[in-house]
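ingest -> validate -> predict -> emit
validate: passed (alphabet ok, no gaps, 185 aa)
predict: started
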Amino acid sequence: MKYNATSASLNEMEGSTTGNPSAKYFQIKNIHVQPFWIVEEVLDGDSLKVKQEFTKESKEIRLYGLDAPEVHLSRKMREDEAKSGIPASLLLQYGMMSLDFVLQVAPPGTRVTLLTEKNNQLDFWMRELAYVILPNGDCLNELLLQNGWAKASHNYYCTRLPYFQEISRLAQINKQGIYQYISIF
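emit:
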């Protein structure tokens, strides 16, 4: 009897053998699954206000592992302007484009599942960090990065950050989203 070794496919290594694009997120160690949330308001390209479908509890969610341009003139907008050398007025336009993308894929009323890493639940401002899983199984965080409407950021660390950095770089190389107009932001 001869033994034939086989190697794992990319889907198996990513933990997604079911065909569900978000399966790899549910397999993160110490992940807290919160189903039955509804998008109440899209605040910008990386923040949402959500409401629990049954208890009506409301909270602000910051997306893990990414940063999108701001949609209001603020302290952060001035910091981003100084770091990137891009005028605030232009960053503001890119922020609105990012916001529009989120409104297209997760408009108010969209039912979502929130996934939070138990060891990394809150940001500096005490907002809950989350992967946002859409009804079709896509991860909103991943869609923003793949389509170039946000960039990977270690400021909102998560287990999937190395993967997010990779897909963010691919969006930059392929001139997706904001990268159609500028090479960095």
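The first helix runs from residue 10 to 14.
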